[in-house]
Design goal:
Blueprint lengths: L10 H17 L3 H35 L16 H15 L1 H26 L9 H9 L13 H23 L8 H18 L1
Amino acid sequence: MRYAWAGLAGHAMFSGIFGAALGFARATRRRWLGVLAPLAGFALAVLAHAWNNSLPLFLALAVARGGAAAPTEAQAPPDLGLLQVMASASISNFFIFLPFVVLLIWIIRRSGHAERAVIREELAGEVGRSITASGYQTVLADRVYRTRRIDGRNRAASAALVSAQHELAFRKRRLRDRQLDPEVDPRVAQRREQIARLRRELDA
């Protein structure tokens, strides 16, 4: 409520920038990026916070440069409703923080494409084991920010099965990045057992 919709100009955005950098550091295969990304994310979050805190100073300097006297006492707020105030604040914050908004949009899109790539690549070796051939075709046809469903009649089990397949893919990728063999990992075996159990539940 304090920063209107989307958390622009608030700690949600600052924390989101740093959190995205931590996620990127974990996902990258380049060691130097894994070290640099959190530092860059922290610096960007600090910069956004400093920009937010400096706005009143910039406004006062602009008023002084124009020859007008700075206000000496608080003025009454305009007679606007809650939704009008939130909409106005959201629009102004969007433009004030536009570079950071663009950065977050780019981060979200990039992470979505990266996740899809991991799922496609790692589940390719699971065809006939943890995913059917037709199921893998739906993985290939899947798009960013759209969750596939295996069986619309049992939405809970379908969502659990898709989630388990995705977690299996990410676990295999993390092991490969550490130069470890996924085939001897007990958590990979547990995921496959979970997937088989969910598949039987859907087929029942």
